[in-house]
Design a protein that fits this description.
The protein has about 375 residues and is mainly β. The chain has one helix and 30 strands. This is Gliding motility-associated C-terminal domain-containing protein.
């Protein structure tokens, strides 16, 4: 026999007494001064989406929310040590306060998510309180998804060209080539030639229909020392659904060191990609590269402090008959120099398509091409310009 919560309404305050579950068939509503506390499961088989006031979920044992219809609250607080489990979508219109325990959604069902609607925000997120599964946003342009796995908060920041009708994100501390939570496989060996290595430790899934950049971070658990020695060697990579391979999503900004830091991609359409993670651009492997292990990616910060003010490519003097060409992310050449001797400091020397040359090239990622004609060698890589 089904058991119900005993509910008493008094001056807009709801008191609940825990039994097996609260079954709602559409007769409940929390008013503006009301408060409702759940210490048991919620089965929602009716409209429960015009709520105001505060709704909280409390206890040590897991609390499960299920039923035929989504739930929606104005203000929420989550204090469920072993997790608030969602079998149906849940939304918040104002504030979600993470106190203790995760909001957990099935990672293999993207249509079940915890949604931050319109002007909604969150507080208190940490390693022990976050969304372990899919978080979603509606009518937002910029958002930091408070996602992670059971052990760590691993947010993804999305910055879109315009507001998203709906965007969803989840984090996976799993090998993309053989994830345990998804039926899909994103083999890290299936990649374009511009990619050297790809992380086998973690990835994010992001869906959205608006061009966006993403910022993701790493920490010691990410083990990026297995991929690179410097943070400027890293790029964001994505598994392209149509091409069924990993491609470069770029690096427009980064910070930190190889143990802990962040990186921002170039703009891309999230719906075109099934997974996002860290990659590197390959280093050349011939004699010139062996003698110059930094060849491949360069970091330039021409601020006059004497550090990384000029693009210095050591060893190019071995081929006096050389050339350097630099291209922006649109493929337009912005710098060209024959017999290059470390002169480039962030300013274009070309008239074509360069506006306000005197203020220097804008921050961002650039592609370079080096040719050593007398040695019949050619190299390419990325240059990250930071002002």
């Amino acid at each position: 026999m089904k058991q119900f919560l005993n509910i008493a309404f008094l001056l807009g305050v709801t008191l609940t007494y825990a039994q097996t579950a609260l079954y709602n068939s559409g007769n409940l509503r929390v008013h503006s001064t009301g408060q409702m506390g759940f210490h048991t499961d919620l089965v929602n088989n009716g409209t429960f989406d015009a709520n105001q006031g505060l709704v909280g979920f409390y206890g040590v044992a897991p609390i499960r929310v299920s039923g035929a219809f989504p739930t929606q609250f104005q203000d929420m607080e989550i204090m469920v040590a072993n997790g608030l489990l969602l079998d149906t979508p849940m939304g918040v219109t104002n504030n979600a306060n993470f106190i203790d325990g995760d909001i957990i959604t099935p990672k293999n069902i993207i249509d079940v998510y915890f949604e931050f609607m319109d002007d909604a925000f969150f507080t208190g997120e940490n390693d022990l309180a976050k969304v372990n599964g899919f978080a979603a946003v509606s009518n937002k342009q910029f958002f930091s998804f408070p996602v992670g796995d059971e052990d760590q908060l691993r947010p993804l920041v999305m910055d879109s060209d315009r507001t998203n009708e709906l965007a969803r994100c989840a984090y996976f501390f799993e090998n993309p080539s053989n994830p345990t939570s998804l039926p899909e496989r994103f083999d890290i060996d299936d990649k374009v030639r511009d990619i050297g290595g790809i992380s086998s430790n973690e990835f994010w899934v992001l869906q959205g229909s608006v061009p966006s950049t993403v910022t993701i971070s790493w920490n010691p658990r990410s083990n990026l020392t297995a991929l690179a020695t410097l943070p400027e060697d890293l790029v964001v990579v994505g598994y392209n659904i149509a091409a069924r391979q990993w491609v470069v999503l770029g690096n427009t900004a980064f910070g930190g060191d190889i143990q802990q830091g962040f990186i921002t991609s170039e703009k891309f359409l999230p719906n075109d990609f099934a997974a996002i993670t860290f990659g590197t651009v390959p280093l050349p492997t011939d004699t010139f590269a062996v003698n110059n292990p930094t060849l491949g990616n360069y970091f330039l910060s021409p601020d006059g402090d004497g550090i990384n003010d000029f693009l210095v490519i050591e060893g190019m003097e071995a081929s006096p008959n050389n050339s350097l060409r630099i291209f922006n992310r649109f493929g337009q050449m912005v710098y060209e120099k024959f017999n290059y001797t470390n002169e480039f400091n962030g300013f274009s020397n070309l008239d074509n398509l360069v506006i306000n040359r005197e203020i220097g090239l804008p921050e961002g990622v650039y592609f370079y091409l080096v040719t050593l004609d007398d040695l019949e060698l050619e190299y390419q890589g990325f240059l990250f310009l930071n002002r």
